[in-house]
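Please describe our next protein:
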Amino acid sequence: MQRTNCLVLVLLSTIVLSLPSRSLADTCKVLDSDIAFSYEGECLNGFAHGKGIAKGNGSDSNAPKYEGMFKNGMKHGAGTYFRREFDGTTVRYQGEWVDDQKSGFGEYSSLQWGNGIIYNGGYQKNNFHGFGILQVRGMRLWSQPNGYLAKGEYIGLWDNDVLMRRFYNCSSAQECIDKENRESIQKAEAAARQAAAEKKAADKFRSVLKSKSPKTMYLEAGKYERGGETGNEVAGFSETA
């Protein structure tokens, strides 16, 4: 009897080992349907959780693929996503993720035969956000909610994919921001000087007007309209005085 039991156990073990192994995608769920065809990695409570590799359906070279950290079935933490479009465009993002969305710092590219865009910078909910550098290559245009960016390099502060402030001739984010702050201060000081000069001129002009009657001003205005003198000169006030 004992010998028979041993033979049964051996046969069962052989059958189990000969069965094809189930994909972890069947027991370890990935919520992004684009890469939910197969999964290899760590699991928790039936969801991809921790480090893993998830792929979509298709050949190894064209199938969407994500390799990195997961949390409760979602891309979360550091990871790299890659896919190849039917027209030959390759899309790649390497950076930080939060709840299946690009959030934090990342490096993104979408290129077709070298043409397209490359972006290095901040993200929030899949959109460019904060400081970032965008390169538009070839004949492509980068579409924005408020227009298009043609071929070139765009360095600055972004919000919801829109370039809000563009920086020039700087080698780092801090240098750009410092330069922008200096320029803002200089513009404010120049505006203050201009306002003070205009107030001084206006005060002087008003003092001239006090010595003239409305009828005199009316007659002088008519003289000005006929040409030959400036409005300030007919009122007895010179702009260079």
